[in-house]
Design a protein that fits this description.
Shape: flat
Number of helices: 25
Structural class: mainly alpha
Helix content: over 70%
CATH superfamily of the largest domain: MetI-like
CATH topology of the largest domain: MetI-like fold
Strand content: under 5%
CATH architecture of the largest domain: Orthogonal Bundle
CATH class of the largest domain: Mainly Alpha
Distance between the termini: 58 Å
Oligomer: single chain
C-alpha cells in the first residue's frame, strides 16, 4: 500500500495527470496538425458536456466545403456543398443572370408568326376578304401574348435583388452552421482515430485539392447553367455522337449473331435437358390425381411447419381448386420447380467452391450483381435469341433472376463458420471431406436454407414475366387480365400465386426452424 501511495506515477498524482495531459496534447496535435492549442481547448469543452456544445470555428465557416473535405469529413462536405451551390446559384442569378431570357425566347419564337399574320391581314384588307375579322383577332391575340411575356420578363428581372438576397441569406446561414458544428464533428472523428489509426488525420493535400476541385466544378458549372440559360450548350446536354451508339449496337448484334450461329448445338443440348426435367415435373404435378398431390403437399407442410400451417395449406389448395386454377397452379409449380432445382443444384456447389476462394468469388460477384440488377425484360432479349420462346426460355430467365441468392448465402454461411471450430476438427484429424460434410455444412445450413428459400421466392416472382415468352400457368391469367383490364381475373390469379408462394415459404422456413 505504501509503494502505491508513494509512486510518483499514481493515477491520482499530479505527475501522472500532467503526463496524461501532455500525451493528450501530443495526440491532438498529431491529429489536427494545425492550431493544436485551439482544437485541444475546443475538444475539452465538447467532452465536458454530454449534450451538444456549440463552438465557433472561423476557418470552417470561411472555407466551408473545402474545410470539411480537407479534414476527410466527406458526408458533411457533400451536404454543405449542395446548400452552398444553391446559395451561389441564387446570388449569381440575382446579380448577373438573365432572368427574363426564357420569356424573351418565347417572344422571339412568336414574333415571326405575328409578322406573318399581319401580312395576311393586310392582304385580306386589300382584297376585301371575309377573313379580315378572324385575322385581326389572331393578330390581337398574339400581341396580347407578347405583352404578357414582356410583363413576365420585366417581373422576373424585377425579382433579381430578392433572389440574390435569398442566396446570400442561405450562404450566411450555411457558413454559421458550418462554423458551429465543425469542432463537434471533428472531435467525433478524433475519437474514431484514437481507436483506428487508418483514419486519415490532419488536412491531407489530396483532400484539399479534391474538395477544392469538386466545389469549383459543381458551383461554377451550376452558376453558369442557371444564370445564363442556353448560353452554354455543353452544360445542358452531354456531348456525344450518334455514331457511337450505332457502332455499339452493331457490335452487340454481331456478337449475338456469332454466338447463335456457332453455339446452336450447345443451346439445343441445354434446351433438351431443361425440357426433360420440366416434362418430368409436369407429369408428376399435372398428370397425377389432384388428391394425391394435395395430400402430399399437406403432409409435407405438416411435417415441416406443424398442424396449423398444414391446415392453412389445405385451404390454399382448396382455393386454387375451387376457382379453377389447379392445373395452371401445378404447371406453375413445375416451371418453378425446374428453375429452382437447377439453380440450387448449380448454386450450392458453386457457393461451396467460392467460399474458400476469395479471388474466384471476386470475379463471380459482379456477374451475380448484373444478374440481380439488370431488368428482366433486358436479359430476356438474349435468352430469346439463344433459346427461342417457350418454357425452356422461361426457365432460363427465371434462373438468371432467382439463382444468385443461394450462391451468396452459401458463401456467407460457410465463411461464417467459426475458425476455432474448424481448427479443433482439424486438430483431431478431420479430413477435408469430413470437415466439409460434418462441420462446415451443418453450421452453415441455416444460411444455405435461407438462400434456397430466397431463390424459390424470386423464381415465383418471375411467373408473370415468364408468361410473356410463352410460359403457361398462373402468370398467363394475370397477363391476360392486364391486356383486357379484367380486374377480377387478375386479382384471383394473383391470390393463387400468393398462396403458392406462402406454401413453399412455410415448407422451407419450417424446415429451417
Amino acid at each position: 500500500m505504501t509503494d502505491v501511495l508513494d509512486n510518483p506515477l499514481n493515477v491520482d498524482s499530479p505527475a501522472r495527470a500532467a503526463a496524461l495531459a501532455e500525451e493528450r496534447q501530443e495526440k491532438v496535435a498529431a491529429f489536427v496538425r494545425t492550431n493544436p492549442a485551439y482544437y485541444l481547448a475546443a475538444f475539452d469543452k465538447i467532452r465536458s458536456r454530454a449534450h451538444f456544445t456549440p463552438t465557433f470555428n472561423a476557418a470552417a465557416g470561411l472555407l466551408g466545403t473545402v474545410w470539411f473535405g480537407a479534414r476527410g469529413l466527406w458526408n458533411w462536405a457533400v451536404a454543405f456543398l449542395i446548400v452552398e451551390t444553391f446559395a451561389f446559384v441564387q446570388m449569381a442569378r440575382g446579380l448577373f443572370g438573365d432572368l427574363g431570357a426564357e420569356a424573351r425566347a418565347r417572344i422571339a419564337s412568336i414574333e415571326g408568326t405575328l409578322e406573318l399574320r399581319r401580312q395576311q391581314l393586310a392582304a385580306a384588307v386589300e382584297a376585301g376578304s371575309d377573313r379580315v375579322d378572324a385575322l385581326r383577332r389572331a393578330v390581337t391575340g398574339i400581341e396580347t401574348n407578347i405583352a404578357g411575356f414582356q410583363a413576365e420578363a420585366a417581373a422576373a428581372e424585377a425579382g433579381a435583388l430578392p433572389i440574390a438576397l435569398t442566396g446570400l441569406g442561405v450562404l450566411l446561414m450555411a457558413k454559421l452552421v458550418q462554423a458551429v458544428v465543425a469542432n463537434t464533428v471533428l472531435e467525433a472523428r478524433y475519437s474514431d482515430w484514437l481507436s483506428d489509426a487508418t483514419i486519415p488525420s490532419g488536412m491531407a493535400e489530396r483532400h484539399i485539392v479534391l474538395s477544392a476541385i469538386f466545389m469549383a466544378i459543381i458551383v461554377i458549372s451550376s452558376m453558369l447553367h442557371y444564370s445564363f440559360p442556353g448560353g452554354f450548350p455543353a452544360l445542358a446536354s452531354f456531348p456525344t455522337d450518334p455514331g457511337i451508339r450505332l457502332t455499339g449496337i452493331a457490335w452487340v448484334e454481331g456478337f449475338f449473331a456469332f454466338a447463335v450461329t456457332n453455339g446452336e448445338a450447345l443451346f439445343d443440348l441445354i434446351t433438351a435437358g431443361i425440357r426433360l426435367l420440366l416434362d418430368a415435373l409436369e407429369l408428376i404435378f399435372v398428370s397425377t390425381p389432384w388428391m394425391v398431390i394435395a395430400s402430399f403437399i399437406v403432409l409435407l407442410t405438416w411435417l415441416s411447419a406443424g398442424v396449423r400451417t398444414a391446415i392453412w395449406s389445405g385451404g390454399f389448395l382448396a382455393y386454387m381448386g375451387l376457382f379453377g386454377f389447379w392445373e395452371k397452379a401445378m404447371t406453375t409449380l413445375a416451371l418453378l420447380g425446374t428453375a429452382a432445382c437447377l439453380s440450387i443444384v448449380i448454386g450450392i456447389p458453386l457457393g461451396m467452391f467460392c467460399a474458400r476462394r476469395k479471388r474466384l468469388y471476386a470475379v463471380i460477384q459482379p456477374i451475380m450483381d448484373f444478374m440481380q440488377t439488370m431488368p428482366a425484360f433486358v436479359f430476356m432479349i438474349p435468352v430469346i435469341a439463344f433459346f427461342g420462346t417457350g418454357k425452356p426460355a422461361a426457365v432460363v430467365t427465371t434462373m438468371i433472376f432467382g439463382g444468385t441468392p443461394v450462391v451468396r448465402l452459401t458463401v456467407l454461411g460457410l465463411r461464417g463458420v467459426p475458425e476455432s471450430v474448424r481448427e479443433a476438427a482439424i486438430s483431431f484429424g478431420a479430413s477435408k471431406w469430413y470437415l466439409l460434410t460434418r462441420v462446415d455444412l451443418p453450421l452453415a445450413s441455416p444460411s444455405i436454407r435461407a438462400g434456397i428459400n430466397q431463390t424459390i421466392m424470386l423464381s415465383l416472382a418471375m411467373v408473370v414475366v415468364a408468361s410473356l415468352i410463352g410460359a403457361k400457368g398462373l402468370g398467363e391469367d394475370v397477363l391476360e387480365a392486364l391486356q383486357y383490364a379484367n380486374v377480377g381475373q387478375g386479382i384471383l390469379a394473383g391470390f393463387a400465386i400468393l398462396f403458392c408462394a406462402m406454401i413453399l415459404d412455410r415448407i422451407v422456413q419450417g424446415a429451417r426452424d
